[in-house]
Design brief:
The chain contains 8 helices and 14 strands. By secondary structure, it is an alpha/beta fold.
Length: about 325
């Protein structure tokens, strides 16, 4: 009989409740408990699946093989470190940590223990991004926009670590070249952290990525355009569409080349379930994680540098503003 992986979810707020649901549905896993510092919330989710409720994550030792951590970003490092040190496989929501030293320490522990440490950069499992792979051909320019309504639950970090880091990770995955230069700016609007930001990232192979992120929008939107020789690829990650605009061999007019277009709508598959299935398969089949901690660390490095540059720009702006008053 095939052994099931005993799992628990740490942090069952907005996102964690979906993690719990997916683990409960899988036949390859046994959801043995959920943990949240909010006792009422923990009990509520636990009762839904007739499992144990915890408020202290230390109590899970000896009861689980793997955990999914969907708690507040500021405690990602402490939680992940604890479970990794106790030989428990970890699926950790992005970002991997809030500092480079923290990320490197977690990676070192996972390697030493030889356990699975996967990071939850969910868009890597989006069917649009998966379909995009076969159409990439030496991208020269990337333009991405990620906006969402303001949610207080994400404001323990800035919008760069909250939202933009998703597109940073995707851009690094697409371009696969070192970053050579960054220009960035941003501003706080509804919180004390930067709530909207823009970044221009130049790569060693000549490619450029322009990324923008905002959490002060009235609606959610996540789009990306990739420009490459003779083609433009337009992705809508929310609507699950991928449009291709390709230069044809003919001409509409002597000065206007023929443009061939195609738009496909991808099946609205469950990216979170795919992410969790990949995590469990990495454990049972001893495979590398689909999104490695090293890839997440590399995205964090760029996100932190964008944050530094944006904060420096904001400080200069405030200084000039004060001098004029």
């Amino acid at each position: 009989m095939k052994k099931t992986v005993k799992c628990a979810v740490i942090g069952v707020g907005y996102l964690g409740k979906f993690h719990a649901s997916k683990f409960a549905e899988l036949t390859s896993t046994e959801l043995v408990g959920v943990c949240d510092i909010d006792q009422a919330r923990s009990k509520e989710i636990a009762a839904k699946y007739d499992i144990d409720s915890f408020t202290d994550y230390h109590d899970l030792i000896g009861k689980v093989d793997a955990v999914s951590i969907a708690a507040t970003t500021s405690i990602h490092y402490a939680l992940a470190k604890f479970f990794l040190e106790h030989d428990i496989h970890v699926l950790l929501e992005k970002p991997i940590a809030t500092t480079l030293n923290e990320a490197n320490e977690l990676i070192a522990i996972a390697h030493k223990k030889k356990i699975i440490f996967q990071i939850g950069h969910l868009e890597r499992f989006n069917p649009v991004f998966i379909a995009l792979q076969s159409k990439l051909n030496h991208p020269a320019f990337i333009e991405a926009t990620r906006v969402a309504p303001f949610k207080p639950r994400g404001t323990d970090v800035n919008v760069i670590l909250d939202l933009m880091i998703n597109d940073i990770e995707l851009a690094l995955n697409i371009i696969k070249a070192p970053v050579t230069k960054i220009f960035a700016y941003g501003a706080p609007v509804l919180s004390n952290e930067i709530d909207l930001a823009r970044a221009n990232i130049e790569f060693a192979n000549g490619c450029v990525a322009n990324l923008s992120a905002s959490r002060v929008s009235l609606k959610s939107q996540h789009k990306m355009k990739i420009f490459q020789p003779d083609a433009c690829l337009a992705c809508d990650f929310n609507d699950k569409t991928l449009a291709t605009f390709q230069k044809g061999t003919g001409k509409i007019k002597p000065y206007l080349p023929e443009i061939l277009s195609e738009k496909i709508t991808l099946e609205n598959s469950d990216a979170l379930q795919s992410e969790i299935v990949a995590f469990i398969e990495s454990i049972t089949k001893k495979l590398p994680p689909k999104v490695t901690a090293e890839e997440a660390r590399d995205a964090l490095v760029i996100a932190l540098e964008i944050t530094r540059i944006a904060n420096e720009h904001l400080s200069n702006f405030n200084t000039l503003k004060s001098a004029k008053e």
